[in-house]
Design goal:
By secondary structure, this protein is mostly helical. The chain has four helices and three strands, in the order H-E-E-H-E-H-H.
Length: 107
């Protein structure tokens, strides 16, 4: 393999990528790579994967769908993290006694 040609192809592919973080779609490979998996990478990594034939750039629609799915997954994870937080309050002894001494309302 001619390394100069290989790296020149990578530089050429990287110069054609306009996005800061392009979305790639994986291709099936002989070593177990799965077809159709989307991921967001840097332009350098994207160029290398495109030149090696392990991925292709996602279409604008595929990229938008992927980013929407990622945003939704992040929102769900943040909600789960917020729900898992334990909230408690520290009360002084006098405050606790005041609360205990209050008659409880009957509804």
């Amino acid at each position: 393999m001619d390394l100069k040609l290989y790296y020149q192809k990578i530089r050429d592919a990287a110069s054609k990528i306009e996005e800061t973080f392009p979305v790639l779609v994986s291709r099936e490979t002989a070593d177990g790579g799965k077809d159709g998996i989307l991921t967001e990478v840097t332009p350098g990594v994207a160029a290398r994967m495109i030149v090696e034939g392990t991925a292709r750039l996602a279409s604008p629609r595929e990229a938008d769908d992927f980013r929407q799915q990622q945003a939704e997954a992040q929102r769900v994870a943040e909600q789960a993290a917020a729900a898992a937080k334990v909230q408690f309050s520290l009360l002084s002894t006098t405050e606790l006694n005041k609360l205990k001494g209050r008659p409880q309302s009957k509804e």
